[in-house]
# Entry
Amino acid sequence: MASAETAAEHERILREIESTDTNCIGPTLRSVYDGQEHGLFMDKLEGRIRNHDREIEKMCNHHFQGFVDSITELLKVRGEAQKLKCQVTETNQKLQNDGKEVCLLTSMDELRQCRLQQRNIATTIDKLTHCLPGTNISPSICAIISDPAVFSPRYYPALRTLEQLEESCLPQAGSYRFCGIMSENIPRLRTHIRDVSMSDLKDFLESIRKHSDKIGETAMKQSRSVTTVKTIKLSSRVMCLSLTHIILQIPGAQDLVDFSPVYRCLHIYTVLGARDTFENYYRKQRRKQARLVLQPHSNMHETLEGYRRYFNQIVGFFVVEDHILHTTQGLVNRAYVEELWELALSKTIAALRTHSSYCTDPDLILDLKNLIVLFADTLQGYGFPVNQLFDMLLEMRDQYGEILLKKWNQSFRQILDQDNYSPIPVASPEEYQRIAGQFPFQDPELDKMPFPKKLPFSEFVPKVYSQLKEFIYACLKYSEDLHLSSTEIDDMIRKSTNLLLTRTLSHCLQYAIKKKNVGLAELVQIIINTTHLEQSCHYLEEFISNITNVPPDTINATKLYGTSTFKDARHAAEEEIYTNLNQKIDQFLQLADYDWTAAQGGAQASDYLSDLIAFLCSTFAVFTHLPGKVAQTACMSACKHLSTSLLQLLLEGDVRQVSMGALQQFNVDVKECERFARAGPVPGFQGDTLLLAFIDLRQLLDLFTQWDWSTYLADYGRPTCKYLRVNPQTALTLLEKMKDTSRKNNMFAQFRKNERDKQKLIDTVVKQLRNLIATNQA
# Structure
């Protein structure tokens, strides 16, 4: 049993056969013989012929009585004519026989009357013959007009019939009253046909407005299928044929919309001489529909479906216009379609720029990009220029990159926050291979060690490296189908990756380094991690080259800035280590509690200093995995800071008096620092290099504890001076503190000779130091 679609298609073909001229029926018959249901159609055609035969029979029955009456009258006339002929014959015979003049005159008069009757009869028959075509045509026209739902496809033949009636039949019939009535009604009938066909056109325009979404969706599916066939390498001819069959099954615009109303209306207006009116009306209405289609919904940016509906409507609109362009002669022209496309292109790009700017989801941006590419490829397949759309996609690439950077910023932050900053323990070869698959790490010495063992870096190294690769893949996904060369894609990925490295990852590393409560062990691990990430940069270069097929040594190829990024992070961590160590030293020094007026110094170092030295020893013990230079610099920096801080502690303004006993205790503490430096807490120092950090303090304390002012004053300014690192101002400040102490302690013993001599010596040294300072300032 035939499907509803097949029955509808057969019905449409039958209507075309009924309404189309004989000269144009060839394509219709070809579609019949090309179809698969030829037998069903022939049955349908036979049924339709029988229906028309019945209609003809009804029409004949309707006019049969009149025809019979006319024949009867003609037969009567023929009988009368026969009688007349007989009478004429008899009269003629009579005249011949009688030859009488009177009889001859009478017969002649009768003969004239008979001939007049014959002429009238012939004229009547001739007039009736000319009127019959018009009277036969008129009922069929009235039937078409009276039932437009059934006979709407026959409006065009009706107009041709009216033209035949007006130009041929009615002039031949003569100037009868019924001919005048028919002539007067012909313009009204034409107007009626025009109005009804215009109503059909309005229904058609409303239909394509509603179906634009579906038409566009179908066209984009077809474009996607064609693209799939072009891009996928099929392994067998059978698969290719099956895909082609699937594509052929996707309906086109002509299958979803019946374009016959617009064709009929165009023909009708052309026959009526109003084609320009029809064209202007059609174009005006389609421009209005274009403005409605191009107006996006306010919430279009919220979901991909909003964008898809928007694109479907636009594609559907232009697929219809393209079909009209190629199936009608001049209803729309290329200039008109290009004008509409320019309008659509500008409004579409503006809408996409506005709505895509609200998007913060990289997956949605990527899906939107793929949808725009499909939209552009579909319309390009219909001959519309789409270069501006691809230019806009290149603009969106920057937005997509910024969104990716924000997303990866959160990922990096999460990785750094969750990391334990401890070497990764590896218990089995499988676990080792798993980590090696995530991060390109090679250490022959470590490979020789038995399991379980520890990798030098923490978890964030393979995780960060994996995230870098995921970012590169995300950039590659956006660059697909943008008609870019491999070099352009490679350059785009490298520039985006550089932004990720120099801006996002660099800031995250700085955040991890600078955040509060970060310990020295964490900073040390960060240095180790960034060192390994720096060493992996060339693997990233190779990874990008492999996925873009562009050699890394290509001329003008952008180089990754990963090395500098990780170096900067490592240097920042090193500086933070130095700062952190100094802060720890300051915290210990705040616990210092010297008795600056003590008469006698102790034999052991102060408790705070012993704790400080123990802390430094334990701290430098964890520096074993650091590069040697970093550990040495940290140790030297700590010792210098300790030396400077101790000197400032001795010279600070709050300490107004310093006794020799306090100075002796201070000297014991400095010796403890020197013992720590001499022990070599960090390997790699040559000789007593680390002791140089305390040389200023040592020379100053030796000068005061040995009271060797004569040597200092005599050798000052010489390169070989024993106390070369002692500044006169520093010595003066400390000496004045001791001078005040001496006076206070000897207030009742000022008449003793030794004390008086010592006081005089201090005064003399102070005076000489001031002279040295004045000389240096001059």
